[in-house]
Amino acid sequence: MTESIHLEHPDLVRLLDLWRQKRPGGALPGRGMFDPIELKFMLGHILLIELADGGRFRVRLHGSRLVDQMRHDHTGRFLDEWPYQPAKDDLLQACARVLETRRPLAVGGKVSSPVPVTYEALWLPLAADGTRIDMLMCGKQYERRW
Question: Cα(77)–Cα(61) distance, rounded to whole angstroms?
């Protein structure tokens, strides 16, 4: 079954297509199935979030372009320690939703901290064993439109 998701940014559409191609027999793809070379079009715009003990979410990779936009590198930090509200709540809700549905999730909106921007994001579940979600990949694109 193909997930119906509305995305406007062409790189996010491409990322979703790549994720769909990596689904062996409909199972969830694992992080190891993605070669950084084939993700070159999104490098710098990706968050990798690992599921840590206790049900917490830890930032494994905070893409360099996202770091530039947010003016802080959150790699290694837990999402519940994220300093910006309501961005922290939005991130935690997106993670919980993807875990619950086991499907890609497209979100967008406005963020005013630290710099006012609009964004579009694609959240993707990943599972090294094809079943148990152990990581989330988020491709995010920012624009200064407001």
Answer: 10
Residues 6+ apart with CB under 8 A from 128: 30, 31, 32, 134, 135
**Residues whose CB is less than 8 angstroms from the CB of residue 81 and which lie 6 or more positions away in sequence, other chains included:** none
Bond from prior residue into 114 cis (ω within 30 degrees of 0): yes
- Domains located in the chain, CATH noted: 10-143 (3.30.450.20)
- Per DSSP, the residues of 11-69 read HHHHHHHHHHHT-GGGPPPPGGG--TTTTTTTTTSEEEEEEPGGG-EEEEEE-HHHHHH
What does residue 24 show for φ and ψ, rounded to 5 degrees? -70, 110
* CA-based torsion, 143, 123, 100, 62: positive or negative: negative
Query: pLDDT tens digits, residue range 117-130?
Result: 788 989 999 999 99
pTM of the model: 0.85
d(CA 54, CA 77): 14
The pLDDT tens digits of the residues spanning 67-109 come to: 566 667 666 688 788 777 667 888 899 999 999 999 999 998 8
Q: Alpha carbon 126 to chain centroid distance?
A: 10
